[in-house]
Amino acid sequence: MDGKFTDDSLFDGRLVCRQHKDGYRFSVDAVLLAHFISPKPEQKILDLGAGCGVVSLVLACRWPGIHLTALELQPHLVDLIVHNIRENSFEDRMQAVAGDLRNLSGPIAPGGFDWVVCNPPYRKHGTGRRNPGEEEALARHEINADLHAVLRAASYAVRTRGRVALVYPASRAAGLIAELKSENFEPKRLQVVHSYPESPGKLVLVEAVKNGGEELTILPPFYVYKEPGGEYSEEMARCYVSN
Q1: Residue 84, in any domain of the structure
Q2: Which of 9, 35, 192, 221 is 20 to 30 Å from 205 at the Cα level?
Q3: Do the domain assignments include residue 226?
Q4: For residue 206, how many C-alpha atoms fall within 13 Å in the half-sphere facing its CB?
Q5: CB-CB contact of 83 with 18 (8 Å)
Q6: CA-to-CA distance for 56 and 52, rounded, in angstroms?
């Protein structure tokens, strides 16, 4: 293996994900998102801003009957998705597409998907410390696409009554809900992710339905760690070892 990459495994080695050693690397956010939804067999899922493809890879491993399209802007990351599809033998139901979510009219058909999933950039452009590498900066900061652009793309790609699922900072949850509603997505399930019990919420996982009715279920809190600086919680550990 080239020293520029690492091959990281999940599910006791049943899934392998190659990623750049020093560029953008997936985090617990992506793993949580991939375990948050429950698609039905034969449903089509679009992964917006897919990075190395980890969300789609985990979904493909967990749900053998679904079909996935991983859309990514950065060419080097598209190459990684293609590699990961091949290495995990998902060629028959997962594809990588190079494209900009701000303009999907070429590579993506309107209303062609049952689900859209996205782990969007969290940090507003021009605020906070910018990641030094371009690959990671584009993935973490709202440089090429903000939340509004992500949800406009999701609305274009998903069918009526289709669903969108996102992971986002808890501190920006109010804005996320407002943006969802502005694009005619009605939130249906929401789960707050905490670092450990009694800590403030760090992330929110949200599932919403396009043109759906108003009815929101607040799920029990999810804890990543048992205690500060401690081991993963049982729920988090299962996300890495069991599909």
Answers
A1: yes
A2: 9
A3: no
A4: 28
A5: yes
A6: 9
Contact 211, 235 (CB under 8 A): no
Give the CA radius of gyration of the chain. 17
The whole-angstrom separation of Cα 104 and Cα 214 is 28
- As beta bridge partners, residue 141 has 123
Q: How many domains does the chain have?
A: 1
Which candidate, 150, 145, 106, 118, places its Cα nearest to that of 45? Answer: 118
Residues 175-211 pLDDT 10s: 999 999 999 999 999 999 999 999 999 999 999 999 9
27 Cβ contact partners less than 8 Å away, ≥ 6 residues apart: none
Write out the two tokens for 180: 């969802």
Contact of 194 with 222, CB cutoff 8 Å: yes
CA distance 105 to 134: 26
CATH number of the CATH domain containing 16: 3.40.50.150
In a domain, 223, yes or no: no
**What is the average pLDDT across 39-55?**
97
Question: With contact defined as beta carbons under 8 Å apart, do 131 and 62 qualify?
Answer: no
**Residue 72: inside a domain:** yes
- Can you give the residue range of the structural domain that contains 28? 5-164+171-184
Chain position carrying tokens 């009815």: 215
